[in-house]
Amino acid sequence: MRPESPSQPPAPEHSGVFAAACTTSTSSATSASQSCLAAALEDDLRDSLAAARAARAACTTHPPALTQPEAQSDRPSVGTSIRELYSCLQTPLFPRHANRDFFSALQAAPNKVTLRAVLASPTALRELPHFLACIQTLQRRRIEVDVRFIVVRWEDLADARRESQHQRDLRFQSVVHTVRERVSDEGFAKHSVTAIDVELNIRTGRIASPPDFKDWSDQTSDAAEAHQKGMTSRYVDEDLARDVAWITDSREPGDAADQRASEQRLIDLATRRAVAVRIANEFDDRPGDEDHAFAMMTSEPTRRLVKCYRPEVTVLNVAIGDVETYSAAS
Questions:
Q1: Where are the domains of the chain?
Q2: What does the pLDDT look like over 279-295, one tens digit per residue?
Q3: CA dihedral 158, 164, 166, 170 (to 10 degrees)
Q4: Tens-digit pLDDT profile for residues 148-168
């Protein structure tokens, strides 16, 4: 997703090693094994991913076609798959309880995972190979992955004010088209790529459409104005108030450039909230899937930005390194 963040330093990352998931005997009951794995993850995944990142080389090359999984006999334990998946991530799962919930579901029903990969339009072609590599980690373990790629029109307000609507429309359409072509090359249907056309009101500095994104933008901007006046609103939830305060308190008073950056950060916050709520609502509409593993995928540079998403949805924050990138002109 977008790399912008307030000028304060990101939250420090811990150091440590991803511990083995669990070592129960084959005669142990399934429920005991699941509880042991979940408990180990709850403790161990709080540590840094420093050791896991050393294994990230496996995820930083352009992934091969994902339609030929390994033979069943070659499939390692779920714990091994979890460690491989974590080697692709930039930060631990969000929210914290997701460590237990997601991986317990992955063990209880290891044959199916539902992922919604959110691609920000300015960086989508750079993010895509890493998302595919992360998906490959699951697919090659014979885990069925139901994935949809969501390309969000995520514009920079300053650029939008300088360019014509036609130029901006063409750029977004080109990115969506290229993403569809690339995922098709990897064996996914083109219709697995959907687009969210987010329009900015360049005069007000807020989101104009779609309606749910506009609503979050209005809430976020109104909360920022109230916070600057020392006021609180009973209509703003605690998490949103926290994120708005983080953005506005980092701004230098009277600094016009910082004022413009703050406008962009509020747009980014509203976009994160809106897309996460859409995905959370989709997952909530699937009855009878208590043991099913659901998550959205994104690529934020810091843990603090991941916290700007709704805690109702599990977030796999994929690491983005130096790999081959796709060009919309290719």
A1: 30-317
A2: 999 988 776 555 678 89
A3: -40
A4: 999 999 999 999 999 999 999
Number of H helices, E strands in the chain: 11, 7
Identify whether the C-beta of residue 280 lies closer than 8 Å to the C-beta of residue 311.
no
Selection from 41, 27, 19 nearest residue 107 by Cα: 41
Could you tell me which residues are beta bridge partners of residue 115? Answer: 147, 295
Say if CB 275 and CB 64 are below 8 A apart: no
Residues 6+ away with beta carbon under 8 Å from 233: 222, 223, 226
CB 198, CB 210: distance < 8 Å: yes
Q: Please say whether the dihedral angle defined by the alpha carbons of residues 45, 51, 57 and 60, taken in this order, is positive or negative.
A: positive
Three-state SS for 84? Answer: helix
Half-sphere exposure (Cβ direction) of 96: Cα atoms closer than 13 Å: 7
- Decide if 323 contacts 129 (C-beta within 8 A): yes
* pTM of the complete model beyond 0.85: no
